[in-house]
Amino acid sequence: MSKKNNAQSSFEETPIDTGFLILTYKNDASEAQNVVKEIHSDYIQFHFCVKGTGKFSFNQGNYILDIHEENSLLLYNPQRQLPIDLTLEPNSWMVSILISIKEFHGLFSTEAGYITFLSEENRDKKYYKDGLISPSMAIVLNQLINFNLNASIKGLYYRAKAYELLSLYFNRSEEADVEQCPFLVDEANVIKIREAKDIIISRMAEPPTLQELAEEIGLNIKKLKEGFKQIYGDSVFSFLFDYKMEFARKLLESGDNNVNEVGLKVGYSTSSHFIAAFKKKYGTTPKKYVMSLN
Protein backbone atom coordinates (compact mmCIF):
# COMPACT_ATOMS: atom_id res chain seq x y z
CA MET A 1 0.00 0.00 0.00
CA SER A 2 1.36 3.40 -1.00
CA LYS A 3 0.67 6.27 1.40
CA LYS A 4 1.45 10.00 1.35
CA ASN A 5 0.19 12.21 4.18
CA ASN A 6 0.69 15.59 5.75
CA ALA A 7 -1.25 17.21 8.58
CA GLN A 8 -4.21 18.23 6.45
CA SER A 9 -4.12 16.10 3.32
CA SER A 10 -3.58 12.45 2.50
CA PHE A 11 -3.26 10.16 -0.50
CA GLU A 12 -3.42 6.38 -0.13
CA GLU A 13 -3.08 3.64 -2.71
CA THR A 14 -4.42 0.23 -1.68
CA PRO A 15 -4.01 -2.83 -3.95
CA ILE A 16 -7.08 -5.10 -4.08
CA ASP A 17 -5.87 -7.72 -6.55
CA THR A 18 -3.69 -8.00 -9.64
CA GLY A 19 -4.80 -5.14 -11.90
CA PHE A 20 -7.20 -3.75 -9.26
CA LEU A 21 -6.54 -0.91 -6.80
CA ILE A 22 -8.25 1.85 -4.82
CA LEU A 23 -6.95 5.41 -4.41
CA THR A 24 -8.31 7.66 -1.65
CA TYR A 25 -7.53 11.35 -1.47
CA LYS A 26 -8.44 13.75 1.34
CA ASN A 27 -7.49 17.40 1.01
CA ASP A 28 -8.47 19.26 4.19
CA ALA A 29 -5.71 21.81 3.64
CA SER A 30 -6.32 25.44 2.68
CA GLU A 31 -4.61 25.05 -0.70
CA ALA A 32 -5.31 22.86 -3.72
CA GLN A 33 -3.30 19.62 -3.89
CA ASN A 34 -2.05 17.83 -7.00
CA VAL A 35 -1.79 14.06 -7.48
CA VAL A 36 -0.10 12.50 -10.53
CA LYS A 37 -0.04 8.79 -11.37
CA GLU A 38 0.77 6.87 -14.54
CA ILE A 39 -2.05 4.52 -15.63
CA HIS A 40 -1.80 1.86 -18.35
CA SER A 41 -4.26 2.19 -21.23
CA ASP A 42 -5.96 -1.12 -20.45
CA TYR A 43 -7.28 0.20 -17.13
CA ILE A 44 -10.81 1.44 -16.51
CA GLN A 45 -10.93 4.42 -14.17
CA PHE A 46 -13.83 5.15 -11.82
CA HIS A 47 -13.57 8.46 -9.96
CA PHE A 48 -16.00 9.50 -7.22
CA CYS A 49 -16.02 13.01 -5.75
CA VAL A 50 -17.24 12.57 -2.18
CA LYS A 51 -16.85 16.21 -1.16
CA GLY A 52 -15.76 19.46 -2.79
CA THR A 53 -14.42 19.59 -6.35
CA GLY A 54 -11.56 18.26 -8.43
CA LYS A 55 -10.09 18.81 -11.87
CA PHE A 56 -8.53 16.18 -14.14
CA SER A 57 -5.99 17.44 -16.65
CA PHE A 58 -5.13 15.55 -19.86
CA ASN A 59 -2.77 16.13 -22.80
CA GLN A 60 -0.48 18.58 -20.96
CA GLY A 61 -3.43 20.59 -19.69
CA ASN A 62 -5.11 21.04 -23.08
CA TYR A 63 -8.17 19.09 -21.94
CA ILE A 64 -9.79 19.54 -18.53
CA LEU A 65 -12.55 17.51 -16.88
CA ASP A 66 -14.17 18.93 -13.74
CA ILE A 67 -15.75 16.66 -11.16
CA HIS A 68 -18.03 18.02 -8.45
CA GLU A 69 -19.37 16.82 -5.11
CA GLU A 70 -21.66 13.75 -5.33
CA ASN A 71 -20.65 13.11 -8.96
CA SER A 72 -18.76 10.26 -10.61
CA LEU A 73 -16.61 9.89 -13.71
CA LEU A 74 -15.83 6.73 -15.69
CA LEU A 75 -12.89 6.85 -18.12
CA TYR A 76 -11.59 4.18 -20.49
CA ASN A 77 -9.48 4.63 -23.61
CA PRO A 78 -7.62 1.54 -24.88
CA GLN A 79 -6.04 3.64 -27.66
CA ARG A 80 -3.94 5.90 -25.42
CA GLN A 81 -2.64 6.37 -21.87
CA LEU A 82 -4.83 8.36 -19.49
CA PRO A 83 -2.48 9.23 -16.62
CA ILE A 84 -4.10 10.73 -13.54
CA ASP A 85 -3.24 14.41 -13.15
CA LEU A 86 -5.72 15.53 -10.50
CA THR A 87 -5.97 18.90 -8.79
CA LEU A 88 -8.06 18.55 -5.66
CA GLU A 89 -9.48 21.79 -4.29
CA PRO A 90 -9.37 22.62 -0.54
CA ASN A 91 -11.83 20.69 1.63
CA SER A 92 -12.31 18.00 -1.03
CA TRP A 93 -12.33 14.20 -0.89
CA MET A 94 -12.08 11.72 -3.75
CA VAL A 95 -12.10 7.93 -4.17
CA SER A 96 -10.88 6.22 -7.36
CA ILE A 97 -11.10 2.59 -8.44
CA LEU A 98 -8.65 1.48 -11.12
CA ILE A 99 -9.20 -1.96 -12.66
CA SER A 100 -7.75 -3.64 -15.75
CA ILE A 101 -10.23 -4.53 -18.50
CA LYS A 102 -9.24 -8.20 -18.10
CA GLU A 103 -9.96 -8.21 -14.36
CA PHE A 104 -13.16 -6.22 -14.89
CA HIS A 105 -14.43 -8.54 -17.61
CA GLY A 106 -13.91 -11.45 -15.24
CA LEU A 107 -16.26 -9.84 -12.73
CA PHE A 108 -19.03 -9.41 -15.30
CA SER A 109 -18.47 -12.24 -17.77
CA THR A 110 -22.10 -13.39 -17.56
CA GLU A 111 -23.46 -9.85 -17.50
CA ALA A 112 -21.20 -8.19 -20.06
CA GLY A 113 -24.07 -7.68 -22.49
CA TYR A 114 -25.52 -4.72 -20.63
CA ILE A 115 -22.22 -2.96 -19.90
CA THR A 116 -21.79 -0.90 -23.05
CA PHE A 117 -18.02 -0.70 -23.29
CA LEU A 118 -17.60 -4.48 -22.81
CA SER A 119 -19.52 -5.38 -25.95
CA GLU A 120 -17.57 -6.74 -28.94
CA GLU A 121 -18.18 -3.69 -31.15
CA ASN A 122 -16.97 -1.28 -28.42
CA ARG A 123 -13.98 -3.24 -27.16
CA ASP A 124 -11.45 -0.92 -28.82
CA LYS A 125 -13.37 2.32 -28.39
CA LYS A 126 -12.83 4.99 -25.75
CA TYR A 127 -15.56 5.42 -23.18
CA TYR A 128 -16.51 8.33 -20.97
CA LYS A 129 -19.46 8.66 -18.63
CA ASP A 130 -20.32 11.04 -15.82
CA GLY A 131 -23.13 10.51 -13.36
CA LEU A 132 -24.48 11.12 -9.88
CA ILE A 133 -23.40 9.25 -6.76
CA SER A 134 -26.43 7.50 -5.27
CA PRO A 135 -27.01 7.67 -1.51
CA SER A 136 -26.08 3.96 -1.24
CA MET A 137 -22.78 4.63 -3.02
CA ALA A 138 -22.13 7.68 -0.82
CA ILE A 139 -22.22 5.48 2.28
CA VAL A 140 -19.66 3.03 0.87
CA LEU A 141 -17.40 5.86 -0.31
CA ASN A 142 -17.41 7.49 3.12
CA GLN A 143 -16.68 4.13 4.74
CA LEU A 144 -13.62 3.83 2.49
CA ILE A 145 -12.35 7.35 3.05
CA ASN A 146 -13.00 7.33 6.81
CA PHE A 147 -11.63 3.80 7.44
CA ASN A 148 -10.82 3.48 11.16
CA LEU A 149 -10.77 -0.27 11.81
CA ASN A 150 -7.74 -2.43 12.61
CA ALA A 151 -5.05 -1.93 9.95
CA SER A 152 -4.61 -5.70 9.57
CA ILE A 153 -8.04 -6.05 7.91
CA LYS A 154 -7.77 -3.01 5.66
CA GLY A 155 -7.04 -5.02 2.49
CA LEU A 156 -9.99 -7.34 3.10
CA TYR A 157 -12.31 -4.45 3.98
CA TYR A 158 -11.32 -2.42 0.91
CA ARG A 159 -11.77 -5.45 -1.34
CA ALA A 160 -15.33 -5.98 -0.05
CA LYS A 161 -16.18 -2.30 -0.39
CA ALA A 162 -14.71 -2.08 -3.91
CA TYR A 163 -16.95 -4.93 -5.07
CA GLU A 164 -19.93 -3.38 -3.29
CA LEU A 165 -19.27 -0.01 -4.93
CA LEU A 166 -19.00 -1.51 -8.42
CA SER A 167 -22.18 -3.51 -7.82
CA LEU A 168 -24.06 -0.35 -6.85
CA TYR A 169 -22.58 1.58 -9.78
CA PHE A 170 -23.84 -0.97 -12.31
CA ASN A 171 -27.08 -1.79 -10.51
CA ARG A 172 -29.81 -1.58 -13.18
CA SER A 173 -32.70 -1.34 -10.74
CA GLU A 174 -33.24 2.28 -9.76
CA GLU A 175 -35.84 1.14 -7.24
CA ALA A 176 -33.53 -1.26 -5.40
CA ASP A 177 -34.33 -1.05 -1.67
CA VAL A 178 -31.12 -2.26 -0.09
CA GLU A 179 -30.08 -1.42 3.45
CA GLN A 180 -26.48 -0.26 3.20
CA CYS A 181 -25.95 0.99 6.72
CA PRO A 182 -27.19 -0.05 10.16
CA PHE A 183 -28.02 3.55 11.10
CA LEU A 184 -29.79 4.50 7.87
CA VAL A 185 -32.59 2.08 7.16
CA ASP A 186 -33.30 3.37 3.67
CA GLU A 187 -32.09 5.88 1.15
CA ALA A 188 -34.87 8.29 2.12
CA ASN A 189 -32.99 8.77 5.40
CA VAL A 190 -29.76 9.50 3.55
CA ILE A 191 -31.58 12.20 1.59
CA LYS A 192 -32.80 13.67 4.89
CA ILE A 193 -29.23 13.76 6.21
CA ARG A 194 -28.15 15.63 3.09
CA GLU A 195 -31.05 18.02 3.65
CA ALA A 196 -29.75 18.59 7.19
CA LYS A 197 -26.33 19.50 5.76
CA ASP A 198 -27.93 22.00 3.35
CA ILE A 199 -29.98 23.54 6.19
CA ILE A 200 -27.04 24.18 8.52
CA ILE A 201 -24.96 25.62 5.67
CA SER A 202 -27.74 27.96 4.52
CA ARG A 203 -28.30 29.14 8.12
CA MET A 204 -24.75 28.94 9.42
CA ALA A 205 -24.93 32.35 11.14
CA GLU A 206 -27.91 31.17 13.21
CA PRO A 207 -28.07 27.37 12.90
CA PRO A 208 -30.92 25.40 14.44
CA THR A 209 -30.30 23.22 17.50
CA LEU A 210 -29.90 19.48 16.94
CA GLN A 211 -33.46 18.96 18.17
CA GLU A 212 -34.83 21.60 15.80
CA LEU A 213 -32.80 20.20 12.92
CA ALA A 214 -33.99 16.65 13.61
CA GLU A 215 -37.63 17.78 13.71
CA GLU A 216 -37.24 19.79 10.50
CA ILE A 217 -35.91 16.85 8.48
CA GLY A 218 -38.15 14.26 10.14
CA LEU A 219 -35.55 12.07 11.88
CA ASN A 220 -34.89 11.48 15.56
CA ILE A 221 -31.70 12.95 17.02
CA LYS A 222 -29.94 9.57 17.30
CA LYS A 223 -30.38 8.81 13.58
CA LEU A 224 -29.44 12.37 12.66
CA LYS A 225 -26.19 12.24 14.65
CA GLU A 226 -25.19 8.72 13.63
CA GLY A 227 -26.24 9.21 10.01
CA PHE A 228 -24.40 12.54 9.68
CA LYS A 229 -21.23 10.99 11.06
CA GLN A 230 -21.59 8.02 8.68
CA ILE A 231 -22.03 10.15 5.54
CA TYR A 232 -19.85 13.19 6.27
CA GLY A 233 -17.31 11.64 8.64
CA ASP A 234 -17.95 14.22 11.36
CA SER A 235 -20.52 15.43 13.87
CA VAL A 236 -23.07 18.03 12.71
CA PHE A 237 -21.47 20.96 14.52
CA SER A 238 -17.88 19.93 13.89
CA PHE A 239 -18.74 19.78 10.17
CA LEU A 240 -20.42 23.20 10.44
CA PHE A 241 -17.43 24.67 12.26
CA ASP A 242 -15.06 23.54 9.50
CA TYR A 243 -17.41 24.88 6.84
CA LYS A 244 -17.74 28.26 8.59
CA MET A 245 -13.99 28.64 8.96
CA GLU A 246 -13.42 27.78 5.30
CA PHE A 247 -16.15 30.25 4.29
CA ALA A 248 -14.59 32.91 6.53
CA ARG A 249 -11.13 32.27 5.06
CA LYS A 250 -12.45 32.83 1.54
CA LEU A 251 -14.23 36.02 2.60
CA LEU A 252 -11.00 37.33 4.12
CA GLU A 253 -9.10 36.50 0.93
CA SER A 254 -11.61 38.46 -1.17
CA GLY A 255 -10.78 41.62 0.80
CA ASP A 256 -14.37 42.84 0.68
CA ASN A 257 -15.01 42.53 4.43
CA ASN A 258 -13.07 43.34 7.58
CA VAL A 259 -12.55 40.83 10.38
CA ASN A 260 -15.62 41.96 12.36
CA GLU A 261 -17.87 41.73 9.30
CA VAL A 262 -16.61 38.26 8.40
CA GLY A 263 -17.15 37.09 11.97
CA LEU A 264 -20.75 38.33 11.93
CA LYS A 265 -21.43 36.62 8.59
CA VAL A 266 -20.42 33.25 9.96
CA GLY A 267 -22.30 33.68 13.23
CA TYR A 268 -19.93 35.21 15.80
CA SER A 269 -21.44 38.16 17.66
CA THR A 270 -18.06 39.24 19.04
CA SER A 271 -14.84 39.49 17.08
CA SER A 272 -12.83 37.93 19.94
CA HIS A 273 -14.83 34.69 19.66
CA PHE A 274 -14.34 34.64 15.89
CA ILE A 275 -10.60 35.30 16.20
CA ALA A 276 -10.26 32.46 18.73
CA ALA A 277 -12.19 30.06 16.48
CA PHE A 278 -10.17 31.02 13.40
CA LYS A 279 -6.90 30.55 15.30
CA LYS A 280 -8.06 27.15 16.55
CA LYS A 281 -8.68 26.04 12.96
CA TYR A 282 -5.75 27.62 11.11
CA GLY A 283 -3.16 28.35 13.81
CA THR A 284 -3.12 32.08 13.10
CA THR A 285 -5.39 35.09 13.60
CA PRO A 286 -7.58 36.42 10.77
CA LYS A 287 -5.56 39.65 10.68
CA LYS A 288 -2.21 37.81 10.39
CA TYR A 289 -3.71 35.54 7.75
CA VAL A 290 -4.78 38.55 5.63
CA MET A 291 -1.33 40.13 6.08
CA SER A 292 0.30 36.90 4.89
CA LEU A 293 -1.60 37.17 1.60
CA ASN A 294 0.04 40.49 0.71
Explain this structure to me?
Helix 2 runs antiparallel to helix 3 (154-169), helix 4 (187-202) packs across helix 5 and helix 4 (187-202) crosses helix 6. The protein has helices spanning 101-107, 135-145, 154-169, 187-202, 210-217, 221-232, 236-254, 259-265, 271-282, 286-293; strands spanning 2-5, 9-17, 20-27, 33-37, 43-51, 53-58, 63-68, 71-76, 84-88, 92-100, 127-132. The two termini are 40 Å apart. The protein is globular. 39% of the residues lie in helices and 25% in strands. The protein is built from ten helices and eleven strands. A seven-stranded antiparallel β-sheet has the order 1-2-3-10-5-8-11. It has a four-stranded antiparallel β-sheet with strand order 4-9-6-7, with no helix packed on it. By secondary structure, the protein is α+β, with helices and mostly antiparallel strands.
Describe, in short, the structure shown.
This protein is an alpha+beta fold.
Shape estimate: globular
Tally of helical runs: 10
Number of strands: 11
Oligomer: single chain
Keywords, separated by commas or semicolons:
alpha+beta, 11 strands, 10 helices, 294 residues, 4-stranded antiparallel sheet
